[in-house]
Structure formats: structure tokens, C-alpha cells
Specification:
The chain is α/β, with parallel strands linked by helices. The chain contains 8 helices and 7 strands.
Amino acid sequence: MFQNEEKVNVYLEETCDAEGALLKSINRETYLRETMPHMMSGHYQGRALAMFSKMVAPKKILEIGTFTGYATLCLAEGLQTDGVLHTIDINEEQYERVSGYFERSAYAGNIRYHIGDAFEIIPTLTGDFDLVFIDADKKRNLVYYDMLIDRVPSGGIILIDNVLWKGKVFDDKHDSQTKQVIELNKTLANDSRVEKLILPIRDGLFVLRKK
């Protein structure tokens, strides 16, 4: 689409709101300490997530896939004062460090950080979710969506990351994981319960609004 994607990304970051000090610190430490730092939402997508959250003004958010907590804190920016954000991740080794980030934030009292299998944890969480962000095991994206679609009220938003899958969805031949992403996209495109579009942000962000 663009001849120099790196220049485009720099320009997008320069023309959106800046990262706060804590987010900038998480960004830097993620790139210093993680073997796959690209899994983090990062500056521009983080501002997009924060914008969606502020437009929805959710009482309750669910995030599947915490990683180092960058997206979590961006989503928390739109929470109502007494709102709650549940975030789930399978990696217990990051718990202490990521919990520390949350404690340093303005949303320490609003975030509930769960370690374990999201498939098992989601049924233990009560109530509906005004905003859902799915950014975890790609093989289970459709499973999570099916688990949650009836728990999102009319006007609620579901966001699913990595739906362009590094451009592999456009290839003639597909590996098994790419086939799963394509099947997810086809299923969501035909789901009459939601309004939907894919934004070409980073690796593709599916935005679905419950009718």
C-alpha cells in the first residue's frame, strides 16, 4: 500500500497523542527483556485501543492476552471511574513484573489480572462486557468469540488482533494457522449479529459492534 511502511509508522506515531511515561517505560522494557516484543500493541495501536475505549466508556472490559500490560493500560483509559478491567494471560512468569506496572498506574484499583487458561477463566467471570479485546492464541479466537458474543450488550465492541496475519491471508498457499485466521474472518464477515470492519493497523484489527 505504501512504499515505505516504516516511514508511515513513524509519521502515524508523530501525529497521534504521545505515550505516557509509564507506557513508554513498558515499551522500552518489553523490547529489552522479551524475545518477541512485537507481540506488544505499541504506541499507535495503543492509542487506537484507548480511543475505542473512550468512545465506548465501558463499565466492564475483558482482555484476553495481557503480555506485558501495554494494551491493558491503554484500554483502561476509557473505563468509567468505578469500572473493572479483567485481563487474562497464560504466562505466570511475567506476573510479578506486569502486576508492578499495573500498581504504578492510575488504574491499579480497576484492573483484575488473571493467570491461567482463558477458556477456563472466562466462565468464572460474571456479567456482560462492554468492550472485549482478544489478542491471544490465534487457534482459539473463534472459540473466545463464540463464548463472549452473547455477553456483549447492544452497542458493545469486540476487537480481535492479528487478523491479517503478516499478510499471509493474501497468499495463494496457507499453513494451518493462516487457514484458521481466514476461517475466523469469513465467519465474522457473515455474522449478522454484528457490524464489522477490519482496520489495517499493524497486523490487522477486526472491529465488531454488537447490534
